[in-house]
Amino acid sequence: MALINTVIVPTILAANKDQFNTFVAAYQGFAKRVQIDITDGQLAPTLTLPETEAVAPAEWQVDFHMMVARPSEHLQNILSLKPSLCIFHAECGEDLLPLFAQLKNAGIKAGVALMKQSYPANYRGAIEGADHVLIFAGELGRQGSQADMLQTEKVDLIKAINPNVEIGWDGGANMKNVRALAHAGIDVINVGSAIAAAPNPAQMYQDLQADLDKRGVVL
Description:
- By secondary structure, the chain is an alpha/beta fold.
- It has one domain (2-210): Alpha-Beta Barrel (TIM Barrel).
- It is 29% helix and 21% strand.
- The chain is built from 8 helices and 8 strands, in the order E-H-E-E-H-E-H-E-H-E-H-E-H-E-H-H.
- It has an 8-stranded parallel barrel with strand order 1-2-3-4-5-6-7-8, surrounded by 4 helices.
- It is globular.
- The protein starts with 6 loop residues before the first strand and ends in a 7-residue tail after the last helix.
């Protein structure tokens, strides 16, 4: 059954190196795959530490979610950092396909993020060329937003364009909705404040992942 493959991925949104190190310390005992959010103060209204300072533990599988207006200006840094996945926003205004080609040539998976107002068909080329499509249902550069569950309607639209693509979710995921997100066809559920603000982040991570494995229970 496909649901068993859905994974919970903690996220890091840090304004500076001290905050980043606090996230790392909190996640290091249990996290396997982590999404690091980077903003430039342009596409997103907030500003994080630069990607060059976001050096994660070697044992982590790292996804970079680049909320930046000009992805091409960050590409060389990403190629040097060699994450597992790099996600750029469809709405940035740059042609992402040449950047995807460089990422893939370096062994890095290429991802495209769609904001709430973005219709998948308008970004067909990027979705066709991507390994991962992130349905962004929160607020750029912020944690703790409410999940817009209507955004799950994009899953079938994305799959119609690229049937084999991995689909991620970012925005408001918590114990109340992760199983519904998995049932909707989400492969990767990125979780920010629900884990980071929990009294015991490791236990919350385990509880969220365990909830995905429940079967035959009304949502």
